[in-house]
Amino acid sequence: MTQPDWLTPQWLVGGAPHVWRPYCQMKTARPPLPVVATRGSRLVLADGRELVDGLASWWTACHGYNHPHIADALRAQIETMPHVMFGGLAHEPAYRLAMRLAKLLPGELDHVFFAESGSVSVEIAMKMALQFQINRGVSGRAKFLAFRGGYHGDTLATMTICDPEEGMHSLFAGVMPAQVIADLPRDAESEAALDALLAARGHEIAAILVEPLVQGAGGMLLHPPEVLRTLRRLADKHGLLLVFDEIFTGFGRTGTLLAMQAAGIEPDIVTLSKALTGGTLPLSAAVASRKVFEAFWSDDAGAALMHGPTYMANPLACAAANASLDLFEDGSWAKDVARVSAAFAEGLEPCRGGQGVVDVRTLGAIGVVEFDAPVAVGDLCARFAELGVWIRPMGKVVYLTPAFTTPDADLDLLISAVRQVVGVN
Fold first, then answer.
1. Are residue 115 and residue 234 in the same domain, yes or no?
2. 85 and 54 in a common domain
3. Boundaries of domain holding 9
4. Are 36 and 95 part of one and the same domain?
């Protein structure tokens, strides 16, 4: 629905010729919807409409928008110290956050390296894994094993470990170094195939990278916890590091605080972002095990990890993350996720009868309807907006990942909109 000219903000008119938007062909894409405020589970548009946000701003606003506890923490921090460089200096919000993450994560995952974006944290994890092998005197391990259906970011190194065929980066095939891409070991046959692959090529590989339980942007593809236990066994057998990309799955989205908890194992490195700050400021972390960190602990300056983003451990972002962890500590998020999960399991199930629908699946606060062909993203976004919700499909899936605190009435609106678009009652 095109809004009248008198409702179009001047900042949108003036800025549109200069803003390069994400994930769209700007010549043909529909204009973006102008948002002027957020509250709870809703986006407030310039024309006064409110849309229930079914995506929590790409999975970040897990506690809902404008949460007063996080807002109070940000106000206090900005009056004290908005930012300070992290090279040679220290500040309380980052050091307290590192202690809390080390306590929250299982086993020996207790060395936290901060960055700004999730993609960068994955690159840092890759760099850690490569240098881990080098520092131990192991040569030739310069590749990574990743999986079909996977997605780990849009920066150059992370593009190489995304699905090379189904992902968004096929244009760059042959430009960047090719990694080893395999099928997830879902059964005895695929486990044996992966074991054989690692026996043949393990000497080339530094680490295995996987999104635990859910391959997110690759299509919201689910796999059982046993897959992760298999990967842990194979990584240990072939002398590889195991990296979990929990940028999407971390902080309650799958039903446990961290997806790895469902498998009862720990990786050697885990990356975190998205909901870490409750959808307020960019912050990420690559958290390494003691074994990994000790490979860098040396009298030799050349063994150090030479990396340091400018806004690394930004105090404002760390204050937001500490406030977000406060909210997770009270435990109410688990009941909310269970409530959302139950609503999706019941409300989306009838979509199986929709034309072109090949699967309906749910896990935690994730609901997915998959079609037999890619959907028209722009047209569907517009249709959903007409129905009072913000849902942005991707590839073959229409999916819901709302704030955990989304009220039942707003969940009903999201589910009803999906069912109407699918064509079921």
1. yes
2. no
3. 5-66+331-422
4. no
Are 269 and 369 in a shared domain? no
Tell me the catalytic residues.
23, 151, 245, 274
Boundary (domain end) residue, out of 329, 359, 375? 329
Provide the whole-model pTM: 0.96
What burial letters (b/e) apply to 368-389, b meaning 16+ CB within 10 Å?
bbbbeeebebeebbebbbebbb
Contacts of 369 (CB under 8 A, 6+ apart): 348, 351, 354, 357, 359, 360, 397, 398, 399, 418, 422
> Residue for token digits 């700050």?
277
User: How many domains are there within the chain?
Assistant: 2
Structure tokens, 23: 């994930």
Q: What is the CATH number of the domain that holds 309?
A: 3.40.640.10
Per-residue confidence of the chain (425 residues) as pLDDT tens digits? 455 555 789 999 999 999 999 999 999 999 999 999 999 999 999 999 999 999 999 999 999 999 999 999 999 999 999 999 999 999 999 999 999 999 999 999 999 999 999 999 999 999 999 999 999 999 999 999 999 999 999 999 999 999 887 656 677 777 778 999 999 999 999 999 999 999 999 999 999 999 999 999 999 999 999 999 999 999 999 999 999 999 999 999 999 999 999 999 999 999 999 999 999 999 999 999 999 999 999 999 999 999 999 999 999 999 999 999 999 999 999 999 999 999 999 999 999 999 999 999 999 999 999 999 999 999 999 999 999 999 999 999 999 999 999 999 999 999 999 999 999 97
